[in-house]
Amino acid sequence: MSMESHYTIDLKRLKIGTHEFEVTLDDGFFKELEKTEVLGGKVEAKIALNLREEDYWLTIAVHGTVFVTCDRCLDPMALEIDASDEFDSGDASLNGDASLNDVLDLSWLAYEIVSINIPVVHCHQAGECNKQMELLLQDHLCDEPEPEE
Hints:
By secondary structure, the chain is an alpha+beta fold. 17% of the residues lie in helices and 36% in strands. It has helices at residues 27-32, 106-116, 131-139; strands at residues 8-10, 17-25, 40-51, 56-69, 76-88, 103-105. β4 (56-69) and β5 form a beta hairpin. The termini are far apart.
């Protein structure tokens, strides 16, 4: 991600204990990302950080809606996202060698939870796809049975 995030937390400046943060990933956030399948949306992330003497524990819960391209008709479609994940300072997903000298980008961690919870195949419900595209698809369907070997 090339953009500068204002949701970064400098761990060495925080006091030991539990800290809570909220991050909103909105259309502007998704627009600034490069090469993402998310076209836009609004996702609220609630983050709980338990900072200890030599390590930390992080819980991130995301809830909201993202827009992706329908695999069938190529129109945008809404997907509900409701997921959470936990990390500790030893997790490779937190840049491998996490320590209390780290600066965490909370928006990026929340985005990663969103992105891994998008289904591999995403299509509109039956009858909700673009009608013109459905007609084009019907024109190219092969109705003939496959020849037997």
